[in-house]
Design a protein that fits this description.
This protein is mainly alpha-helical. The protein contains 23 helices and five strands.
């Protein structure tokens, strides 16, 4: 932010310091940037250590709203006008060169197959979205269940820059209108406008799903608007340099301390999936960050602490650190230990950030690079990027495309036909025969265990021969983890067990995507008449769809037990033996993201789920398969490449462990002999 009387110039955007002549920086705000970007980097490296680290982005949003609005107000006061063209040109100089270099580097890295086929397939459109500053909208339109099967995009972090750029495009125009109205009426018009916009942002966030609210520009605008309100408050009371009165400083300092404590608490206790985050949570974070910013520039103690030289150094390079760190994390994947990955990512991010800050950011922002040279460099980067993306474009179907093809097939075994319809097919029955020879269908072929293999969740055809009297006719119900188990059982080709798969990807007990699971399961049980039913799913957080009780509460346990009891009753309606699964906790830095505490990635939640499974089984006579204990006992990272689904090798070994348990139950003991 410029000091009073200084020439209006560039101020700080998301993660970015400003290096501008005649501008005196606020070192304390650089210190805040350093802490914010550090929280984001640590969150991306290991969400378990800092599950709420993502709020560093909100801190940057507040800083941007505050500093940009202060700059615009100062320019308006000095000139009675705001030069939109000049403002946008400064934004371009500040943000685009380094972003385009990172985009080109990511494209070139794709030539060495660093990103995986699915990420490489989407790299062209994602790069275009990043250049057009609409990455957040691109991600909103390209999400879905199958996205969980692929490695994350190296450009995923560009969503926050897109939100920033959209704010920079729209907010100056709105502010010009508000200031014009204020000049004709009263300064309260600006407060009214900010209040209306903030209310709209809160409302939009409230009605959206948590996933949509996280990426939506209008729902995330609350942090930017709170920062803008802080700047207008400073202007309204003539307090650009801080509260003039001792009482004002004490109030701001106290609020800042409370805000900082709130942010620290949220860093260690918040996760993106928490339902209240988009229903007031973003506003709370913004207000806490706003109070901290206000204190940082007025309270001597906070100012000195945040102006610590190492923090200021990192803060000045935080934009580059943010852009660079995420592609490094994606490139490394799960290689090595967390410590080794952290050392590499942090070391390279700081080193490269220091380099580009010196040779690119400072010269461009200071105006030492002409527009002609910038245009030539930009054209060259675009050409290199486009060529690299074209050369590295996958020429064969990617794993995600194969999963999507599977999901789109009408004949997916998970999609049952209502009983009594014209298209309903009779279940295979056992005709009279003198000798029955068990037939094992062709075993599925699995690929590498190094990453999630979509062949492990491919659909299975129904058996093409009736079950023998000595065979265990097994029906498998559940989600994609159950589909994997079906494939594993089919892969070992044990003639004692005949597999009927009726799992559905992304669907088990919960109502979202499969609201009629009870009817679907009942139809399959009646049509197939199995000897045994295996219900194999991972933890489901949302069983009711809306207004689910707290997961770890007594009410939550009651809902789970009722759900499991219903499932057991349906599965055993024709006399089949029912098996339920105590699942393993989801793991993996990419699958769980920040889902550590109070999510399905929290061990206490998995334990509560398993306890409800065992309770329902004890009440109904079902048998529990301790799949989670089996997974945990192996201590093999290669068992679950994506943190959830078993690899091909693990599925075969899991099947060999599972089959004896299926055949050992008293109700099924006569089978398999």
């Amino acid at each position: 932010m410029t000091e009073s009387g200084a020439t209006p110039s560039l101020t700080d955007p998301l993660f970015a310091p400003a290096v501008v002549r005649k501008t005196r920086r606020k070192p304390a705000l650089d210190g805040m940037r350093a802490l914010a970007v550090a929280s984001v980097v640590l969150y991306h490296l290991d969400p378990r250590s800092l599950p709420g680290g993502f709020i560093g982005v909100d801190v940057f949003f507040v800083l941007s709203g505050y500093l940009i609005t202060a700059l615009l107000i100062r320019e308006h006061d000095a000139k009675q006008a705001i030069d939109l063209r000049g403002f946008w040109i400064r934004r371009v100089r500040r943000l685009w060169p380094l972003a385009w270099i990172v985009l080109s580097a990511v494209a070139l890295a794709g030539l060495f197959q660093l990103w995986g086929a699915d990420a490489q397939r989407a790299l062209g459109s994602q790069t275009a979205a990043a250049v057009g500053n609409v990455s957040n909208w691109w991600q909103l339109s390209h999400g879905g269940y199958v996205e969980e099967f692929v490695r994350p995009s190296p450009l995923r972090h560009f969503w926050s820059l897109a939100v920033e750029e959209q704010f920079y495009f729209m907010w100056p125009v709105v502010l010009i209108g508000l200031l014009a109205l204020a000049r004709r009426t009263t300064a309260a018009v600006v407060w009214l406008g900010l209040g209306i916009l903030a209310s709209c942002s809160i409302y939009i966030s409230w009605i959206l799903s948590p996933e949509d609210a996280y990426l939506n520009t209008f729902s995330r605008a609350i942090a930017l608007l709170v920062g803008a309100a802080l700047a207008w408050g400073w202007k309204k009371f003539g307090l650009f340099s801080g509260p003039r009165s001792l009482g004002g400083r004490i109030v701001v300092g106290s609020c800042g301390a409370a805000g900082f404590v709130t942010l620290v608490f949220l860093l260690f206790n918040l996760v993106p999936e928490q339902g209240w985050l988009h229903r007031g949570g973003f506003t709370l974070i913004a207000l806490a960050a706003c109070a901290t910013v206000a204190s940082a520039v007025t309270n001597p103690v906070a100012t000195r602490a945040l102006a610590w030289v190492p923090l200021v150094w990192i803060g000045e390079r935080s934009y580059a650190v943010y852009l660079i760190h995420w592609p490094l994390i994606v490139a490394l994947g799960s290689q090595g230990t967390l410590l080794s990955r952290s050392v590499i990512v942090i070391g390279l991010s700081l080193s490269l950030a220091a380099l580009v800050h010196r040779i690119i950011e400072q010269p461009v922002v200071m105006g030492r690079v002409s527009w002609k040279r910038l245009g030539s460099a930009g054209g060259l980067l675009c050409g290199i990027t486009a060529l690299a993306i074209f050369v590295a474009w996958p020429r064969t179907p990617t794993p995600q495309e194969m999963v999507q093809e599977t999901l789109g097939k009408v004949a997916d075994p998970g999609q049952v036909v209502a009983a009594g319809s014209e298209d309903a097919q009779p279940a295979v029955s056992s005709p009279p025969t003198t000798v029955c020879i068990p037939v094992a269908p062709d075993a599925p072929q699995f690929g590498s265990d190094s990453e999630m293999d979509v062949a492990t969740v491919g659909e299975l055809a129904d058996p093409d021969a009736p079950a023998c009297q000595t065979q265990l006719k097994l029906l498998v119900l559940g989600d994609s983890t159950g589909r994997g188990v079906s494939n594993g059982l089919r892969a070992v080709a044990d003639p004692r067990v005949q597999i009927w798969d009726r799992t559905q990807l992304g669907c088990s007990y919960g109502p979202e995507g499969c609201p009629n699971w009870r009817e679907s399961w009942a139809t399959n049980v009646l049509g197939i008449e199995p000897d045994a039913v295996l219900i194999y799913t991972t933890v489901v957080i949302d069983l009711l769809g809306v207004d689910d009780p707290e997961f770890l509460s007594a009410e939550g346990a009651a809902v789970r037990e009722k759900t499991f009891t219903d499932a057991i009753e349906i599965a055993g309606s024709t006399g089949a033996k029912v098996f339920l699964v105590s699942p393993a906790r989801p793991a993996g830095e990419f699958y769980c993201v920040a889902s550590n505490r109070r999510t399905s990635c929290d061990q206490s939640w998995t334990d509560a789920w398993s306890e409800s499974v065992r309770s329902a089984a004890a009440q109904t006579g079902a048998t529990v398969i301790e799949a989670g204990a089996w997974t945990d006992s192996r201590h093999l990272d290669t068992d679950r490449p994506d943190g959830l689904h078993l690899s091909g090798t693990a599925l075969r070994e899991h099947a060999e462990w599972l089959i004896p348990q299926l055949l050992a139950a008293p109700e099924t003991a006569q089978k398999g002999n």
